[in-house]
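Journal club prep — side note

Before the paper discussion, L.F. wants everyone to see what a predicted structure for a comparable chain looks like in token form. Sequence:
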Amino acid sequence: MTRCLSIDIVKAFSWDSYITLSEESLSQIDFWQKHLECINGKDIYESHKCTKIVYSDASSTGYAGYIVTTADGVSHGIWSVEESAKSSTWRELVAVYRVLKSMVHLLANQRVKWFTDNQGVVSIVSKGSMKSDLQSFAMAIYKICMINSVVLDIEWIPRYENEKADFLSRILDYDDWGISSSLALALQNEYGIFEVDWFASEHNAKVSKFYSRFWNPSSYGIDAFTAFWGDSFGLFVPPISINYRVLRKKSVDKAKGCHKDEIEELPEVLAGKVELLPDILLLSRAPGTSRKYEYGFNRWRKWALSNGLGSGDILPASAFPVALYLTSLIQSANSASPVISAYYSLKWFHDINGVRSPTSSSLVTNILEAAKRILAKQTVKKEVMTVDILSAMYDRLFKPYDLKHQRIICASVLGFSGFLRSAELLNIVVSDLVFYPTFLALFIETSKTDKYRDGSWILIARTGTKLCPVVNLEKYIRWANLDSSDFLFCNISKTKNGFKKRTVNKPMSYTNLRDEFRLAFMPHVSDISKYCLHSLRAGGASAAANNGIKDRMFKRHGRWTSESAKDGYVKYNLRERLSVSLSLGL
């Protein structure tokens, strides 16, 4: 490992000229002077059996390596912008160096078979390089191996045999965020000197002793949840999605951290209930909304990191970067929906973490209002279903014991009469129906507008006509031989004698229901693309309004929470619209 001396010799003008030794050459001479005696010699017999196997790889975004058959033997890191622009050989060589340095405690006193898919790296690690930047890492690898008694046997393999390391190297850990150095300093001034950073990486650690998700060259350990938190005063900057786990473990371990004083000053009976907060906070929104906001926040994090913002600028975020982020969404979006989603995602995450949200800034709120105007599009609503169209469909499809057609007939008349959404139709179980002599009671367990999941009963009368929803449902349930626990609109299979319900109790899919709706009504409308399953709900509401049903009654029947939402479904007929001007007495 004297390549730096060779580089200096090559730079000489002639054999007779003096040579100025570089810092690297002097460092190599010093290294050999200190270590030559301890490594000068070799055992007569040396076992070539490897006790550890390591694979490493590098991509344009990061590096990774893993020890075979070792559960916690994974190292991973992300390149900086400057590092990602380096040559593939440089990245592959540095990957070997960083993976080795990260997991040397697991490889010490071992003979290691090391696989890489870069042939240049095999040569450089074995012999060195005439390029100074590559040689410095080759020397560093050699020093680590010598100091820790690691015998490195590096070998090239084709890329297709290195797929796992390649996959690991391409992982983008968007949860790897941190706080700014100024904020960390302010926290230390307020609470005391931090002894450990429990959730960090080599790029954003604020304390020399830190735990990371994967092994890093300077990480103290991985998976902070396997350590005991009660012995050290720690800095906690975890991924947003695991905040509840962190608070729970802090309570169990009686951990000392930024909130130490607040928790310890609580009475004992209250301190034991701190772990309840995370679960309660997550339930402040519906599960689907929470997932949507988490996706929106992760999208902001990815944009911030890719545009040069530090991990400490992500939460809490400043108003100006957020305004720029929303502006970038405006430029690429086809509607205001992504901008609105991003706005409320940021607001929610800041609120549940108890920090000031950038959405309270007038700059950000005005960008949101601008997005609504710029990306506004004329709403083209679908046509509403009418009783005449339903009647024509029924006359064409109804046949006794025809289970397939009776299913779409029932879905249509029930959706129309109950003002039901498609999701509500598909989630109905037979036990949700209670049949009475003059009406049907239908229980809707969950609904889009049922914010607190109280459920709602809908009453549907027996009409005595061919389109009577109650009679048609009774026939359908009897023909399908449905049990009380079966989904009402279940999947069916074709047999020699017609159709029967499937043994697996699952509702038909939305796509299947939509396709059957189109086939059922296509012959009876001029353009089926102007109709959808929501036409049933809108048609029922419009029929009720045009027939003089009081707003309060059909608003309750349709489970609308506001007048504007209800009015958006109603399409008044010509007679009702003309009645306004006719009543003026002109």
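L.F.'s comment for the group: Residues 344 and 425 are 30 Å apart (CA to CA). Keep this in mind when we get to the figures.
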